[in-house]
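re: ur msg from earlier - yeah i can do the pyridoxal-5'-phosphate complex, just paste it... oh wait u already did. ok heres what im feeding in:
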Amino acid sequence: MLFLASTFSSAALQLPARSAVATHARAAASMIAPEMTGVETKKAVTGPTFSKSLATPDPIPEEGQKRALELMKSGALFRYTPGVESETALAEWDMTERTGFKYSVGFNSCGSALFIALKTCGVQPGDHVLANGFSFTAVPSAIHHAGGIPVYVESTDAYVMDMEDLERKIKGSDVKIKFLMLTHMRGKVAEMQRVYEIAQEHDITVIEDCAHALGVMWDGVQLGRSASVACYSSQSAKVINSGEGGFFMTDDDELAAKAACYAGCYEQLYLQHVVAPPAEVFDRVKFGTPNYSLRMSDLAAACVRPQIRSLDARISQYNSRYAMICAELKDCEHIDIPAINPRVSPVSDSLQFNLQGMSPAQVDAFLAACKRRGMPVGLFGSKENARNYENWRYSPAAAPLPFTKALIAAAIDVRLPAEFNDDDFPQMAKVLLAAVDDALEA
Ligand SMILES: Cc1ncc(COP(=O)(O)O)c(C=O)c1O
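and the outut:
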C-alpha cells in the first residue's frame, strides 16, 4: 500500500519505487533460489535429487512463433483487424475440428469462458450452482462473478465429484438447483453416465469445466461433448499453451452467438468468424448482450493453433511417461495412485497420489524432503493452495466437506512437463520414494 501511494503521488517518485520493486524481486528470488535449484540444500542430502523446475511450460512450436512474429510486425493482434485473416477465428475452427462441437468462441481465459457459460445458460444473481469441492479457485470465482452461489459437492478419493453427495445436495436443497458446473480436475473424470442421469432427472443444465480435459475421452468421445457448454483452457500449464486463453464450446446457436457478443463481437464483426451461427441469431441477441471485452488475442491464437494440431503426439508421450513413473512407484505402500476408470482415455500430463499411513507431520516432512531434494511438489490441502476450498473465502462452503478436507490433506500434485526427457521420470520417482523414506524417518 505504501508503495502504491508513493507511485501515484508523484512521477518523480516512480523510478525509486520501481527500482525498489526490482530490488525486492531480486531479494525474493535469492531467497527462493536455493530451494528451487537445490544447489545449497543438495549438499545436505544423500540419495536422489532433481534439478529441473516442474513448472516448466511447453514451448511454442516454430510455426506459431513465426506467425506470432508476423502479427507483431504488422501490429494486427486484434482478432477483428479488417482485411486480416483472424488467427482466433481459425483457432476456433481448429477447436471444433478437435472436439466435435459445432461452435467455439475464443476467450482471454478459461475462467472468463466459464463465467460467460454461466451467463449464457441463464444463471441469475442468487442462483445456486453445484460445483466440485475440490477444484481450482477460478471455478468458484466464475460462479461468484456471475452472481451465483456455489454449492460444493464432495470428492471421491480419486479426485472426482461424488455422485451420492451430488444427489444428496440436490435433494437436500431448500431451493431448486438448476445448474451444475462440473470440473474434471487434473483430467480426472467422474462417473459421467451417472452425472447426466442425475442432471436429466432433476432438470439441471450442465456446464463442463474442461480446463484440464482437452484430449480426455469418455467412451471414446471428447469430454465435454454432452454439456450445454464446455470450456477449455490454453493457460501456460495446460496441454495447449498460449500463456492465457480459453475456448467456450457449444452446439447451441443462441449460446454461441451470445458468448461471442459477451466476449466482444459487436456490429457485424461476426462475419469475420469461421464457425458461427447464422447472422439472424446474432442480430436477435446482440443488442441485448453486454460486451465484456474478454476476446482472445490473435497473438495467443497464433501460439496455440499448431499445438491443437499436434496434441495427439504429445498425449501419447504424456501417457507413456506417466506409466513409467507409476511403474516405479507401484510397490510403495505409502503412495496410492487412484486407478483410471476404464471408460476414460486419459491425458496424464500430471501425477496425483494420496499419501497413506502418514501423520500430518509426516506429510509435511514429505513435502520438505521433496523440496530439499530439488523437486518441490504441491499438497492440494496446504494453507496457500488455491485448490483448497477453505481458501475460497469469497464464496465459502455452506456445509462442511469432511471427505474432501481429509482427501486434500494428503493429496500430492506433481506436474510432468512435456519438455523433460524420458529419463527424468524414473529419477522423479526415485526422489518421491526417497522423500517417503525421509518422512518416515523424521
Ligand atoms: C480446474 C480449472 N478450471 C478453470 C481454470 C481457469 O483457467 P484459466 O487459467 O485459463 O482461466 C483453471 C486454471 O488453471 C483450472 O485449474
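cool cool. The chain is about 40% helix and 15% strand. ping me if u need the other ligands too
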